[in-house]
Amino acid sequence: MTISAKDVARHREETGAGMMYAKKALEEAGGDVAKAKEILRQKGEAKAAKRASRSTSEGLIYSYIHTTGKLGVLLELQCETDFVARNEQFRELAQKIAMHIAASDPQFVDDASVSVADRERAQMEYQTEALNSGKPESVVAKIVEGKMNKWFSEVVLLKQPFVMDEEKTVESLINDAIVTMGENIRVTRFARFNIEGGMSSCEAAPLTETDEE
Predict the structure, then answer these.
(1) In sequence order, what are the residues at sequence separation of 6 or more whose Cβ sits closer than 8 angstroms to the Cβ of residue 180?
(2) Exposure string (b/e) for 107-130, b if CB count within 10 Å is 16 or more?
(3) Of 97, 105, 109, 110, nearest to 194 (Cα)?
(4) Of 125-139, 156-170, 191-205, which has the strongest mean pLDDT?
(5) Helix 5-15 crosses helix 33-51 at what angle (to 10 degrees)?
(6) Other beta carbons within 10 Å of 7
(7) Exposed (0-12), middle (13-18) or buried (19+): which is 96, by Cβ within 10 Å?
(8) Strand 165-169 relative to strand 161-162: parallel, antiparallel, unpaired?
(9) What is the pLDDT of residues 49-105, one digit of tens each?
(10) CA angle, corner 180, sides to 174 and 181, nearest 5?
């Protein structure tokens, strides 16, 4: 079927994808917008995975202060080149992530930055809770697994539903940007300041030597 320029423009506006990516997804989906979005998401995840090992030595430090003046975030967002770091789209991405951090108060950047002690503490809590509720041991493991997945989605930045569009996670937001900008992008650390609740800071797990190859 023929995909009109108007359809492509609307799809680009909704997804933030480049023109060629948006058009190809719509063509592949036969004009079905929902299906085209899913195609873009899957391709974005695949491309992001391929770029995940590429070194990020450029980027910016972005600061966000809430209108109340009582809540603020400092975010380090890295990319591969200074060209992308100076791109307005990259700055807009940093703003969105910083605003999300201010609203959602994540405790960790990514799965790998969650300490063994924190994992074990949460797992033990959910296991004890399931056993004390009288659940048979045969289903306790599945219950704990489900609760751990939910816990990660609540405390890990990349796993949290994005506050401006809860149909996607922060990780998928970044993956979309990786596809659009053509470079690896990483949240490496952030600090969240709150007059009422003090300060918390998080740092991503470093890339291993194997990852950087």
Answers:
(1) 16, 17, 18, 21, 89
(2) ebbbeebbeeeeeeebeeebbeeb
(3) 105
(4) 156-170
(5) 50
(6) 16
(7) buried
(8) antiparallel
(9) 566 667 678 999 999 999 999 999 999 999 999 999 999 999 999 999 999 999 999
(10) 85
CA-angle at 193, arms to 177 and 104, nearest 5°: 50
Q: Please count the other Cβ atoms lying within 10 Å of the Cβ belonging to residue 194.
A: 15
Assigned token pair, 109: 């950047």
Give the amino acid at 70: K
Query: In this structure, are residues 144 and 126 in contact, taking their beta carbons and an 8 Å threshold?
Result: yes
**SS3 labels along 55-86:** CCCEEEEEEEECCCCCEEEEEEEEECCHHHHC
Tokens 């709150």 locate to 194
The 10 Å Cβ neighbour count of residue 71 is 19
Q: DSSP E strands: which ranges in the chain?
A: 58-65, 71-79, 161-162, 165-169, 186-194, 198-203
The predicted structure's pLDDT at residue 192: 96
Between the alpha carbon of residue 50 and those of residues 156, 175, 179, the distances in Å are 22, 11, 11
| pLDDT at residue 153, rounded to an integer | 95
